[in-house]
Write a structure and sequence with these properties.
The complex is a heterodimer of chains A (about 190) and B (about 375).
Chain A: H1 9-32, H2 39-66, H3 78-109, E1 113-116, E2 119-121, H4 129-164
Antiparallel strand pairs in A: 1-2
Chain B: H1 12-36, H2 47-58, E1 70-80, E2 96-106, E3 121-128, E4 134-140, H3 150-159, H4 171-180, H5 182-193, E5 205-206, E6 211-214, E7 220-229, H6 238-241, H7 248-259, E8 262-270, E9 290-302, E10 323-325, H8 329-346, E11 361-362
Classes of the chains: A mainly alpha (about 190), B alpha+beta (about 375).
Keywords (chain A): Cell membrane, Electron transport, Heme, Iron, Membrane, Metal-binding, Transmembrane, Transmembrane helix, Transport
Protein name (chain A): Cytochrome b561
Cofactor (chain A): heme b
């Protein structure tokens, strides 16, 4: 067995940058709705950060299509492979859906969508309070679902790192040198 | 593994301790999330608890704002005079006209309450700037606000909760609140000393909170603003006070707009160093320099059922570049509480307004 193939440097960079941004976003979001004193400052951070994450997830999805994830090691049971696959689909789906719902929800509420200074985004839905109410609810429910999925993802990653020690965690580790990247494990050495 | 070897099998003890590390990491993240969300501090005042208190005091009136529940939609335009453009780079202060949607309302959470001269009147406005920016502001016809902090506001709500037996606030509780909040006692005295005008059309509406204007050079100036009626203000007459029409203030406004457009000047007051920007209970000294930023013309009125204002949140911190919040703690709290009220009513079925407004009434000269 050779070194397991890892994710490309760009893939790992996007993963850890977005991990930090999305966790910050979830904490900012849950704190801002409960805060009187810091509400405005946190909202002013939440909205442009959401748009940044949306831009990054589009880049990341394209990168993922160009550079698929390395295969999971063969020893994993079928249910764990399915769980890994499903959680990755959920993570990508939620990463994309959350900022789009946020943008749509502000549009339906009739708020201007401020980025920085006088820079604004256009609305993507017409002004409709009932649609706003439904999207606002969805934004909350999906935020909790995203947090739960990230927690499960973290637990699984740590299981690979500390219990299985099968190289799955190292394939995405930020410190990993891109040694063996995209290399197929050598087949049986041909005997002359 | 990276070196191609199979890792040594972990002992039961090592497995358990490593599982504990994983559990602790996930629990720490979840705990931090719960802490950030305020779930570990149930005594803290939140936007939801503030709006809950409004609902306890007034009942839940589906589809209505939780405060300033009784109101009508109006519309018109604002023409900048250019005189404030040296103070703020906001486009609205350049010479030119921008459309305005607004709402006149009475303070309190009762959408069907009878109009009364002593009830605080409000004017809320949304200016739509040419590049998609907006300026939203909510103003009141009182000289100062009654409280300086969100907690003070909440305490006042609790103290003024109607008593089940009398339907009126308990005077002893109110007195205890005012004893604890001398700033409110002073502000209430100033509010009571001001004579209300005869109606919405001749009221002056004040921003109460301070803001900051920032000009093209980055110079920041503390300001407050007011819309001052162009026509003369008259005091409420005894005949008006004895009105039996429970919507007399709104009916007079509808009649006035039917005759001709109503106009207010947007007057900006410039704070001097030392003037408090973080305390809405304190008026700035008289004689501060003012700038006439332009003229607001309200030329039509419409009920909330069909008008555009019900589904707008007049969040006072929707500001264009060139206007910024001050250090007044009420501003962020207002923004948060308005958003909470907006989210609650947005998902509720509409109910008819108490104010019977024709579908749309326009001034004859508009």
């Amino acid at each position: 067995m050779s070194s397991r193939p890892g994710f490309t440097l760009l893939s790992r960079g996007l993963h850890w940058l977005m991990a930090a941004l999305i966790l910050a976003m979830l904490f900012i979001g849950v704190a801002m709705v409960a805060s009187l004193a810091d509400y405005h400052a946190l909202v002013s951070l939440h909205e442009p950060l959401g748009i940044l994450i949306l831009a990054l997830v589009v880049i990341r999805l394209a990168n993922r299509l160009l550079h698929p994830a390395p295969p999971l090691p063969g020893h994993l049971p079928r249910w764990q492979r399915l769980a890994a696959k499903a959680s990755h689909v959920a993570l990508y789906g939620l990463m994309l859906a959350m900022p789009l719902i946020g943008w749509a929800m502000l549009s339906a509420a009739g708020y201007p969508i401020a980025l920085w200074g006088s820079l604004h985004l256009p609305p993507i839905l017409p002004h409709d309070a009932m649609v706003y109410a439904a999207l606002r609810q969805a934004h909350t429910v999906l935020a909790y679902l995203l947090f739960a999925t990230i927690s499960a993802h973290l637990a699984a990653a740590l299981m690979h790192a500390l219990i299985h020690r099968d190289g799955v965690f190292e394939s995405m580790a930020p410190w990993r040198a891109p040694k063996g990247r995209n290399e197929e494990p050598p087949a049986v050495v041909p005997v002359p | 593994m990276a070196d191609g070897t199979t890792p040594a099998k972990l002992g039961a003890g090592a497995t358990m301790s490593r599982l504990a590390v994983i559990g602790a990491a996930v629990a720490a993240m979840a705990g931090g999330f719960a802490y950030a969300g305020g779930w570990l501090s149930p005594g803290t005042l939140t936007p939801a608890r503030l709006v809950d208190q409004f609902e306890r005091d007034n009942g839940v009136h589906a589809g209505f704002r939780r405060n300033h529940a009784k109101g009508v939609c109006v519309g018109g335009f604002f023409e900048g005079s250019g005189e404030a453009s040296g103070l703020s780079k906001a486009q609205i202060f350049a010479r030119g006209r921008v459309p305005v949607i607004g709402r006149f309302a009475l303070a309190g959470g009762q959408p069907y309450a009878a109009d009364a001269a002593v009830t605080v009147r409000s004017m809320a406005l949304r200016f739509t700037l040419p590049d998609g920016e907006e300026w939203r502001t909510g103003m009141n016809d009182i000289p100062v606000f009654a409280v300086s902090t969100p907690q003070g506001f909440y305490d006042q709500l609790v103290a003024s909760r109607p008593d089940a037996a009398t339907g009126k606030p308990d005077p002893a509780r109110m007195k205890a609140f005012l004893d604890r909040h001398p700033e409110t006692a002073r502000a209430v005295a100033a509010i009571k000393a001001a004579t209300p005008s005869s109606g919405f059309a001749d009221s002056t509406f004040n921003s109460l909170d301070a803001f900051r204007f920032v000009n093209a050079d980055g110079v920041s100036t503390p300001v407050r603003w007011a819309t001052v009626p162009v026509g003369p203000a008259t005091s409420e007459t005894p005949a008006q006070t004895a009105q039996t029409d429970k919507n007399y203030l709104f009916d007079a406004l509808i009649a006035a707009i039917g005759q001709h457009p109503l106009q207010w000047r947007l007057v900006v007051t410039i704070g001097q160093p030392g003037d408090p920007t973080d305390d809405a209970t304190i008026a700035w000294p008289a004689g501060r320099r003012t700038v006439d930023a332009g003229t607001l013309t309200i030329d039509h009125i419409e009920g909330e059922a069909t008008g555009p204002c019900r589904d707008l949140n007049f969040d006072p911190l929707v500001l264009p570049a060139g206007i910024e919040p001050s250090d007044d703690p009420l501003l962020s709290a207002r923004s948060a509480a308005y958003a909470q009220s907006f989210t609650r009513r947005a998902g509720e079925a509409r109910q008819p307004s108490a104010v019977a407004t024709p579908a749309r009434t326009e001034g004859q000269n508009s």
